[in-house]
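Lab notes, practical 5.
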Amino acid sequence: MDRGGATGYLKQQVELSLRHLKLERIDLIQLHRGIVDMVSVQNLYNLTNRQSQDVLDYCTAEGIAFIPRFPIATGDLATPDSPVADIAGELNASPSQIALAWLLQASPVVLPIPGTKSVEHLTENMGAVQLRLSPEDVARLEALA
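Output from the prediction step:
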């Protein structure tokens, strides 16, 4: 698909989304095909699944935003006496905040967008921005992969 075709397809998809969502503006749209300048990539990436590490490395080098899909995937890693739970206890944080803090420290291009259904959970997730994991904490989390 040439750039003209990609541009036409993108415009069509945006117009359809605007109508479907009953919006006047969409700030970010993920184009799933076509040849255009990329500004972001969304791949599965979290504490338990790092198969896209090479993609994150490329995005970091090129300054392309990387949106980790399923960013809070602690599962068994958050059980009592797990490394995630231990670090969370040491930092007076939740396991979800630890998972998000780890992502935020992984690269300056990481933009996690965790889903939530409550203001309380949103507030908790936002608290991850204030956390600073030590190199030892990061090493403990890195060893989980």
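Observations recorded by the TA: The helical segments are 3-21, 53-62, 83-90, 95-106, 119-126, 135-142. The first strand starts at residue 40 and ends at 44.
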